[in-house]
TrEMBL record:
This is Inositol polyphosphate-related phosphatase domain-containing protein. It comes from Rhododendron griersonianum. SMART domains: IPPc. PANTHER family: INOSITOL 5-PHOSPHATASE (PTHR11200), LD06095P (PTHR11200:SF275). It comes from the Eukaryota. SUPFAM superfamilies: DNase I-like (SSF56219).
Length: 325
């Protein structure tokens, strides 16, 4: 199942308030070398507090899920839950099967929410739902998509990103759901011998894809006078891995609930500190265990021969909050 979390956005006296503004230029040290901020960790609530005196101006529930080509209506019902204490529900999906996911989501949310916008590119999809009266608060809605990589779409593993821009309750937001390249030898294993290529071989490709997506989405009809998004949120399957640790030592730490010790091995955080990706962005605390790769229908990590041959305990980012400072 996918990963879920909530954020509060406040313009008044909400319990939590986050303020974002346009990202400044890189700061230089005394030698003229750019100082990068990397990804900042911020606190994120599991649930929004709607009790008296602490109601947030806007509560967003964000879900990302690599479906691996399989889904049932029961899965969708579990995903959206019954206690829907949020204004907006943002669902980013990767490797979506040929089912009508939009119809399944709308049916599961029929009593409480309506579809405000969707952006799809084959197996890569993004949906934004709001309360039944929420169209009154929607002032702007734009969708875009950007494909990267080669023939992934032929096997329902389209790579790239889809995005939705929305002005809701006067707050300008941009949501980007992406699926960056994994390792070619995992997708087409018959072309590779048992001596596999390291996961690190694809890091720069993912960095490059991130930059292309950032620069290309919503750029076709760019208006220099348009006001930028106040909040930009990325979610998806970014495919960055754990680097510098083998499979079984990583699994031992996870089994002992010491997965926080693995963050120093996180390729995404490493690349952000180098200023290659997400520089100056924010992310909720990584309180969950690495999500890739489980045996289907279980919480056991890959027990196949292939899973033992190479390190599969990837971070496979389940969600990442990113926001311009």
């Amino acid at each position: 199942m996918g990963n879920l979390c909530h954020i509060h956005v406040g313009t008044g006296k909400g319990r939590s308030r986050f303020k974002w503004k346009r990202k400044p230029q890189d700061v230089m040290d005394n030698d003229g070398v750019a100082i990068h901020e990397g990804v900042k960790t911020i606190g994120v609530e599991n649930y929004c507090d709607f009790s008296a005196g602490s109601t947030p101006d806007l509560c967003i529930c964000i879900v990302t899920w690599n479906m691996n080509g399989q889904v049932s209506y029961e899965d969708i019902e579990e995903l959206v839950g019954r206690d829907r204490k949020f204004h907006l529900l943002v669902v980013g999906l990767q490797e979506v099967p040929r089912n009508n996911i939009s119809r399944l989501l709308k049916a599961a949310l029929l009593e409480s929410h309506i579809l405000l916008g969707k952006a799809t590119m084959q197996s890569l999809q993004l949906y934004v739902f709001g309360p039944k009266n929420s169209e009154l608060f929607r002032n702007e809605l734009k969708m875009d998509k950007y494909a990267v990589g080669g023939c992934g779409g032929l096997i329902r593993r389209k790579k790239g990103a889809v995005g939705i821009r929305i002005n809701f309750k006067g707050i300008r937001m941009e949501f980007i759901s992406c699926h960056l390249s994994g390792n070619f030898e995992e997708t087409f294993p018959k072309y590779f011998s048992e001596t596999r290529v390291s996961h690190t071989s694809n890091v720069e490709e993912r960095n490059s894809q991130f930059r292309h997506i950032s620069n290309s989405l919503f750029s076709k009809n760019w208006n220099p006078y348009a006001r930028p998004a106040q909040i930009t949120i990325w979610l998806g399957d970014l495919n960055y891995r754990l680097q510098g640790i083998n499979t079984f030592p990583a699994r031992n730490l996870i089994n002992e609930n010491l997965q926080q010790l693995l963050t120093s091995k996180d390729q995404l955080l490493q690349e952000a500190e180098r200023g290659q990706i997400f520089d100056g962005y924010c992310e909720g605390t990584l309180a969950f265990k690495p999500t890739y790769k489980y045996d289907i229908g279980s919480t056991s990590y890959d027990t196949s021969h292939k899973g033992s041959a190479i390190s599969k305990d990837a971070r496979n980012v389940a969600w990442i909050f990113v926001c311009h400072k």
